[in-house]
Amino acid sequence: MGILEKIIGGAAAQPIEAVGKALDGLFTSDEERLDKQALLTRLAQQPAALQVELNKIEASHRSTFVAGWRPFLGWVCGVGLSFAYVINPIIQWVTGQPGPQLPLNFMQELVVAMLGLAGLRTWEKQTGRAK
Predict the structure, then answer these.
(1) What is the pLDDT averaged over residues 116-128?
(2) Are residues 86 and 40 in the same domain?
(3) Chain mean position to CA 61
(4) Span 48-79, pLDDT tens digits
(5) 9, 32, 91, 127 — which has fewest CB within 10 A?
């Protein structure tokens, strides 16, 4: 179990377990227990469905503070790569001293992932699936 799962899963699991124990006292036949198990399964899946709906609402929001994490990461990658490949070499050429060395492998992986997402977004817009 991961840390996040312990934090979120535990908080969601406790009320569901309490409901399950209460339902155990109410239902006695095997059929009623199976119905109770189906109800508990639906209750356990409900937080995930609500999170999906919340993600949709946040993604459709026009505010940069709500839906702007992708552009923010794009700008961070752009500034980082500009510094590494343009600004830093110019500083080294002017001063004659080596500048800071950046670990570009992580930034390049993020750029590739972002470009993949941008390509998917372009496809969504062209096919009319995007808002």
Answers:
(1) 73
(2) no
(3) 16
(4) 777 777 667 666 766 665 566 667 777 788 88
(5) 127
